[in-house]
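Exercise: predict the fold of this chain.
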Amino acid sequence: MLTYYSFGPAANSLKPMLALYEKGLEFEHKLLNPAKFEHHEAWYKAINPRGQVPALDDGGRIVTESTVICEYLEDAHPTALKLRPDNHFDRAQMRIWTKWVDEYFCWCVSTIGWSRHVSKMVEKLSDAEFDEVVARIPVPEQQVKWRRAREGFPQEMLDEEMRKIGVSVRKLDDHLADHEWLAGGMYSLADICNFSIANGMQFGFAEHVNKDDTPHLVRWIEQINERPAVKAVFAEVPREF
């Protein structure tokens, strides 16, 4: 039996969630509440010592890292619906896109998200309460990020991340001008992983993502949102606000 641990349907938590729904795999879904810092509780760190979501438990075998989980599902649980191209070159192109989203696109969007939203999780904590929260975080870099979220990210950092977001959405829009999907002429993990970061940017980053400046990216986002599995995810899994 598969057990999937995640936050709500967005960002890295959304990637394997979409893969699970698209493939029609049965799984038990354990939703963690980031506002209660459940991913830093001892019981969850016994599953993933890094205290991060998502994580997949496949009969006692734990797989972490969102894109790795997606690839694992394709390897260990093949279904009639494939989310990777068969052609080796096309599959390599798919992985270039998933690598790019993990190493570049996700990070710039994440920093702005932390500044706008995650900071609100800790703004009302006392200094002592906040220090207790940070002490439970096993990854030193994440401790730094939580402290920045509470204190405020440097403006020059936020400006640079917004510049990178502009570069990212133009890269996607330019490619999608000539391609229906990102790799191999098919809906694949490349689309799932990038969509999980890009979805909703036409609202949260409307100065960068809109029908005038990035029409092909908006078309692609809307097209993926019309997929039955995607609709089911957003209908069945509570969103975080």
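Check your answer against the key: The beta strands are 2-6, 27-31, 55-58, 61-64.
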